[in-house]
Design brief:
Its EC number is 2.7.12.2. This protein is an alpha+beta fold. It has 15 helices and 16 strands. The structure holds adenosine-5'-triphosphate and magnesium ion (MG).
Length: 449
Amino acid sequence: MLVLDLNNIFVMDTEAIVIRIKTPSGDMDSSVDCPSLLNFNDLLVAIRDVMPEATVTAFEYEDEVGDRITVRSDEELKAMLSYYYNTMNEQRMNGLLPDPLQIFPRAGKTPGIRNIHGLKVNTRPNPANDCTHTVPDSMTNNSLKKSSAELKRILSNGQINALDIHYQEQLGHGNGGTVYKAYHVHGKRVLAVKVIPLDITVELQKQIMSELEILYKCDSPYIITFFGAFFVENRISICTEFMDGGSLDVFKRIPEHVLGRIAVSVVKGLTYLWSLKILHRDVKPSNMLVNTRGQVKLCDFGVSTQLVNSIAKTYVGTNAYMAPERISGEQYGIHADVWSVGISFMELALDMFPYPQIQKNQGSLMPLQLLQCIVDEDPPVLPVDQFSEKFVHFITQCMRRQPKERPAPNNLMDHPFITQYNDGNTEVVSMWVCRCLEDRRSQQAQGRV
Ligand code: ATP
Ligand code: MG
């Protein structure tokens, strides 16, 4: 599996080594504490930082007879490190101190590709930073040294580093990518990492990274915490808080008193996003996460237009939770999110998609024609004999065909269904999540799931 491969790259000698990057303006030495965790892309990012004027796409090293060998991938990097360890061992056996591993960046003519993570490297020699005493100091005046801590900073994207993530089981698979449970070694916490393959230019990668920046600023108990994102080769990994209850789409019919508390959190989460001028754009049960502490949080909101567009190029279809005006290709705003709240909660209450003619088998993307009934027909209504008047009214209001007739953010918070359950009682959701997880476990044990 792609991501697990990442985790298992280079299980070899873990002894620290010194890499000397040979640049036209001099050498830069970097101590790498744990070369077994080094990967091609991160090394390339560090090289591009010291040679920002060139388009470096690969680098070379010299074999024992002086032939240059090109490194363009993780596999080739692994081969280079393996060769270097042999050389080091031979030098030691001959009573010599090992030379640094010399690499020669291969630069194209056009400037342009830059360090996409905006990492800064101080290219001036700084004796105070010199921590590479384990190697002979044979450097010229032009030589530069980097402490291992500094190299680590260079090789990470400032927040979270691909090399520090240990992937565990797969949590689910959506239209855009695959979500894994993972452990972040430095942060000492469990994460959910969404890995999305994207064949896009470095320019677009940069744009996505900068569009995702706003996620660091999101700070709400009703929004999933974002820990960072990075590109490795042609895939982006987005790291967020792990929710041990998973998403609401996998729960069976949810009782109204539990749904009420969940709705309060969802409305609060959306109100928060709207206050930041962010539309969620993808409200649906699989993007509402719960945990055993009774917290409910929204995820997968569309802060990066480029990311949404790039995924849309690969996955064709229209989202069944979209408001009629979106399905028709009209302009839309906050009210479109409100429709999606209505249809999602109706589905969660009924345990079936409210338009029986729409069969959502796998995922929520459908051919546009199939969704035409959402545009043409009167919206469905919850059966009044099974649900409270307040709940039925809430759903009916959210699913008004005319966007302006749907409740605005303040009206949503003030709706009697929401005020009734806005009691801060997380126990109710917590106990329900724990019970459902317990039921699932015992069914699995009996081989029923
Ligand atoms: P789409 O790709 O259209 O958003 P989706 O929401 O079903 O569809 P993903 O977002 O890829 O797909 O998520 C897949 C599954 O991974 C979710 O349904 C959920 O069960 C699980 N998941 C996602 N994020 C987390 C998280 N932070 N904690 C725990 N489980 C998660
Ligand atoms: Mg999702």
